[in-house]
Amino acid sequence: MTTVVNVDPAKPNQADITRAADCLRRGGLVAFPTDTVYGLGVHAMDRAAVLRLFHSKGRPANDPLIVHLASFGEVPPLVAQFPDSAKRLASAFWPGPLTLVLHRSPSVPSEVTAGLETVAIRVPAHPVAHALLSAVSLPIAAPSANMFSRPSPTLATHVLDDLDGRIDMVLDGGPTPVGIESTVVDMTTDPPVVLRPGAISLKTLRTVMPAVQPRIAPAPASNHKPMPSPGLLSKHYAPKAPLSIYRGKPTAVRALLKDKALSAMARGQRVGILASSEDALLLSDLRAVSNQSSGGGPPAVFITLASETDAAATAARLYAAFRELDTARVDIILARDISHDHGLWEAIRDRLHRAAASVILVGPETR
Ligand code: TXA
Ligand code: MG
Questions:
Q1: Residues 200 and 279 both lie in one domain
Q2: For residue 122, which atom of ligand 1 is closest to its CA?
Q3: Whole-number Å distance between alpha carbons of 267 and 184
Q4: 363 pLDDT band (50/70/90 cuts)?
């Protein structure tokens, strides 16, 4: 049985927090909202509980966990060294969506770090996460609270869809504000390197530490040829149906998307379209066709993320949109690439392109 406890995201009830903290202390699995996505917490020093967590998510044992702390001051016992460079980034961005990879101390169980000599640490900014971590006063290992291979959860219902009956408790604090995971930076190399783009952009990191290097970029797409995306290697962030992303001048992309959608509908496929509010005209055209053919193929599914000028709103909706497409059991998903390579768009592009079965360039690269 999974207990669901509703909490005020700004000011959670102390009795609820105490109950969740007690559950963690006893080795229980508790999902809670963070600034980025819901995490599934476990007492990081309790090896048996950590193994249960891997089992509950179906997560392979070679994928290390992030240790969550209430404050900066709790880092030293977990690490071999806390170098000045890491302290600088931590003071600038904690509490917040930044994860630092540091050399671990022997006290951190190897189950948490997947046998690595390093440990990933972050201090999340959400009031519920903060209250829970302060109350429990223990390091809490917490991966995203989804079944392995499903999108990260941004709502408590996403957690329950994947893990109901497999975990002890969910603190439901409503939607998580950012919607995309933390930026992971490896501080054990000189210069430090971004391992996972996330809620804090490279540019923002560089305002504090200009030396930080971007993640090693995946191979670029070639014109008109589908690029095997990193999503094929790691389906972590992906919806179930194959997602094709069309990239290029908006008018050309919309025309091609319309063609592709119409021919898939004519083949009797259930088509999912992932769009921005700027694609409203395209959607209304397609909706009209989809309604007409109601006797034939299944109706198409249209999901609008947000305005393509609004990275924050797009990030906040992305994973919920992936899940809605799964629930609608679409056969294929078509999307116009609205991502850019700056700010929060970096992380959106990373997740969108990882999720894609193919990224197709339409016409010459325009941006
Ligand atoms: O925003 C987030 O980071 C969320 C919330 C719940 O805090 N957590 C999250 O955890 O996304 P998870 O387990 O889904 O992703 C952890 C990432 C993985 O890419 C993992 O490989 C990397 O952090 N990681 C963890 N420990 C590491 C280490 N010692 N060295 C390198 N990468 C590590
Ligand atoms: Mg995850």
A1: no
A2: 7
A3: 43
A4: confident
Identify the sign of the CA torsion 259, 261, 263, 265: negative
Three-state DSSP at 125 gives: coil
Query: In degrees rounded to 5, what are phi and psi of residue 57?
Result: -90, -10
Structural domain ending residue among the three candidates 177, 206, 235? 206
Question: Which CATH number covers residue 135?
Answer: 3.90.870.10
Entry pTM: 0.94
Question: Last residue of some domain: 206, 230, 254?
Answer: 206
Q: In a 3-state reduction of DSSP, which class is residue 57?
A: helix
Please check the confidence at residue 234 and state whether its pLDDT lies above 70. Answer: no
Q: How many domains does the chain have?
A: 2
Residues 187 and 253 grouped into a single domain: no
Atom of ligand 1 nearest to the CA of 104: 29
Shared-domain flag, residues 156 and 248: no
Q: Is the CB of 36 under 6 A from ligand 1?
A: yes
Report d(CA 251, CA 244) in Å as an integer.
Answer: 17
Ligand 1: atom nearest CA of 199 is 1
Mutational test site, ligand 1, from 181, 194, 351, max ligand atoms within 8 Å of CB = 181
164 lines ligand 1 (CB under 6 A): no
65 CB within 6 A, ligand 1: yes
